[in-house]
Amino acid sequence: MEEAKKRIEDLRREIREHDYRYYVLDDPIISDAQYDALMRELMELEEKYPQLVTADSPTQRVGYAPSLGFEEVIHGEPLLSLGNAFSLEELEAFQERVEKQAGRPVTFACELKIDGLSVSLNYQDGVFVQGATRGDGRTGEDVTANLRTIRSLPLRLNEPRTINVRGEVFINREDFLAFNEERKRKGESVFANPRNAAAGSLRQLDPRLTAQRPLDIFLFAVDSRLHDELKTQGEALEYLRRLGLKVNPHYRICRTFPEVLEFIRTWEERRSSLPYEIDGIVIKVNEFALQRALGSTARSPRWAIAYKFPAEQVITRVRSIIVQVGRTGALTPLAELEPVTVAGSTVSRATLHNEDIVKDRDIRIGDYVVLQKAGDVIPEIVRSLPERREGSEVIFKMPEHCPSCGERVVREPGEAVVRCVNNQCPAQRSERLIHFASKGALDIEGLGPAIVGQLVGAGLVRTPADFYKLTKDDLLQLERFGEKSAENLITAIAASKRQPMARVLYGLGIRFVGEEVAREVAQAAGSFQRLMQLGREELMEIPAVGEKIAQSILDFFAVPENRALVQELLDLGLAPEAEPQERADVLAGLTFVVTGRLEGFTRSEIEEFLRSLGASVSSSVSRRTSFLVAGPGGGSKLDKAVELGVPILSEGELLDFLAERGVELDQA
Q1: What is the CA radius of gyration of the chain?
Q2: Mean pLDDT lowest for which of 26-30, 115-119, 244-248, 307-311?
Q3: Active site residue 113
Q4: Strand locations in 286-410, DSSP E?
Q5: Where are the alpha helices (DSSP H) in 458-587?
Q6: pLDDT band for position 580 (50/70/90)?
Q7: Nearest Cα to Cα of residue 309 among 98, 112, 176, 81
Q8: Which CATH architecture group holds 2-60?
Q9: Burial of 461: CB neighbours in 10 Å, binned 0-12, 13-18, 19+
Q10: CATH class name, domain 591-659
């Protein structure tokens, strides 16, 4: 037994060293086969002597059953968000504020701003015991089992320290592209960018799935308990490295502000050469004592700021310009591009919005163009490069007939959009069906564009009412549907019948009737039967309805097919007429904002319920906000509420608040 124990300890030590050299230093000294042999020997010994298995053994990275949900973790110290600077002038203002308060020149630590997911890690006597997401900065989610699967994260430190460290989980560009290709091959949805992929992977309930994702991590901070022992951020980064933690090597201690600006310029030019995404530079006061003196606001530290790079721009070529038809008949030109990687993902298409933009930016088929992602999310063509034209480029013209149904298209005076006015246009029908099932409308889980396309293609669905006539056998005829997935979709469709009238009204896709207008109209009308009887003057008495919206509603219900569709939906059990409620003014005059993850109901459900009680519900926190209802992951809205002194209610406190006013809200 003693001999086996010693051999197990030696193997663990050797494997940890090789993990560090491979995953952190990128400098392996043995072959994969030799490494596998060491791991096999350790696994065999631990299987023979299970009493010797410890949590920090390299064999225990994936040893946990799937979780039913993530437990909350209250951070020992808040993980504050950084203020942003979008120009060098804002950055210089930050420097002036800091040095004015310090009364002397200041040394700054500059680090690459990794575009990933922030986490907090706890080590007890050198052993990794807990890891959590940042969440709202005060409360995160326990993702310990998933973090253990990251091979560059040591389960045991080089010293037996009890310490809290913070870092950023991310995915390299090449790994992200390969991962997305594998998901495409399996018929699964792909991630928009590496950050989303990292966040989604770290929040898998089954650690075995996380272990299959190419996650990596950089550590960049220690908790304040070490700030007397380690005097500066530079010392802290070196100490993290000595502990065996992976630290990004591209940081610099800048003794003058021109050095900070030089560091920024260098990495703004070199960012595309990195194997991972960065979206800026983090500038921190280097001295911990001065950090303490400068302090923090409720939202962010005064001693640090994030300089955000301008949107990354690349050059590609327009292969063709096609025209798509939306649910309202709008024809939208779409540029098909030579595939190019920008801001972490491969882009092959970009919307051109309307023909005026195509003309104003002089974008031609065959042009070389400058492409960026607006907000690092939406592909956008900034300008064409006429100096690179060869003479074969073709000027784009909007079609005179709808590319879907062939009917003539019109452009109304004063509008930039060309429209197909054929209500039976196949393209419009598909887009209307997608809209009906979308999150803001009936919110039918699992009924996305691809599934709607399958249903339309198979002739199973022509109108929204057809969704509610589907059977499990219908779905089993389609590709990618098994017993369970078919049952789940049928259940989700049935559950959507409980959605209120406002969502059904919005889901019908009436032009100019957005979510807010739909709520106002539904509240005023009370039922579809009454709404279909209202005249222009009665509609315009509703505060959110003007002449244009009123006419659009009248035009919609003037079409016999539309009235028949609404009646069919009502007959199927949707949007039942609500019984008058005496409590409708219980929360009159109060404004709520809902944020974070709730347990008993969705955010949209609680927002609808609050509105039914007479409250206003806003999407942003301001001084006029009466209460913020916050679950884990409240983020910037929670920070803003704290900063403004807005009262904050947890989910349980909201239920108590309502109960005190005689209102009971049953949780799911």
Answers
A1: 29
A2: 26-30
A3: yes
A4: 304-308, 313-325, 330-342, 345-351, 364-365, 368-374, 378-384, 394-395, 409-410
A5: 464-467, 472-476, 483-495, 501-507, 515-525, 528-531, 536-540, 547-557, 560-571
A6: very low
A7: 112
A8: Orthogonal Bundle (1.10)
A9: buried
A10: alpha beta
Task: Give φ, ψ of 194 to 5 degrees.
Answer: -60, -35
Question: What is the rounded distance in angstroms from the CA atom of residue 337 to the CA atom of residue 365?
Answer: 10
Domain with CATH 2.40.50.140 in the chain: 313-399
Buried b (16+ CB within 10 A) or exposed e, 579-592: eeeeeeebbeeebb
Give the pair of three-digit tokens for residue 198.
């990292």
Burial class (CB in 10 A: 0-12, 13-18, 19+), 427: buried
User: The domain at 313-399 falls in which architecture?
Assistant: Beta Barrel (2.40)
Query: Quick one: tokens of 52?
Result: 């010797």
| C-alpha span between 495 and 406 (Å, rounded) | 38
Q: How does DSSP classify residue 67?
A: P
Average pLDDT over residues 309-333: 90
Candidates 180, 78, 86; CA nearest to 120 is: 78
Query: Which residues of the chain form CATH 1.10.150.20?
Result: 426-498, 501-571
What's the CA gap between 63 and 149, in Å, rounded? 9
- Strand ranges for 177-296 from DSSP E: 216-222, 252-254, 278-285
**Looking at domain 501-571, which CATH architecture does it have?**
Orthogonal Bundle (1.10)
Reply yes or no on whether the pLDDT at 579 is more than 70.
Answer: no
User: Which residue spans of the chain are classified as CATH 3.30.470.30?
Assistant: 83-176+189-308
Looking at residue 236, its pLDDT comes to 96
One-letter amino acid of 103: G
Distance CA 572, CA 566 (A): 10
Per-residue pLDDT tens over the stretch 476-533: 999 889 999 999 999 999 999 989 999 999 999 998 898 878 988 998 898 999 999 9
> Which two tokens mark 84?
């942003």
Selected from 3.90.1150.10, 3.10.180.10, 3.40.50.150, 1.10.150.20, the CATH number assigned to the domain covering 426-498 reads 1.10.150.20
Name which of 509, 538, 486, 335 is nearest 438 in CA terms.
509
Instruction: State the CATH class of domain 83-176+189-308.
Output: alpha beta
Asked whether the beta carbons of 236 and 222 are under 8 A apart, the reply is: yes
The active-site residue, picked from 48, 100, 113, 184, is 113
Calculate the alpha carbon distances from 52 to 1, 205, 402, 621 in Å.
9, 28, 72, 53
pLDDT tens digit sequence for 357-392: 999 999 999 999 999 876 556 788 989 999 999 999
> What average pLDDT does the segment 414-430 reach?
85
Backbone angle region of 353, left / alpha / beta, with phi > 0 → left and psi within -120 to 50 → alpha = left
CA max distance for the chain:
92
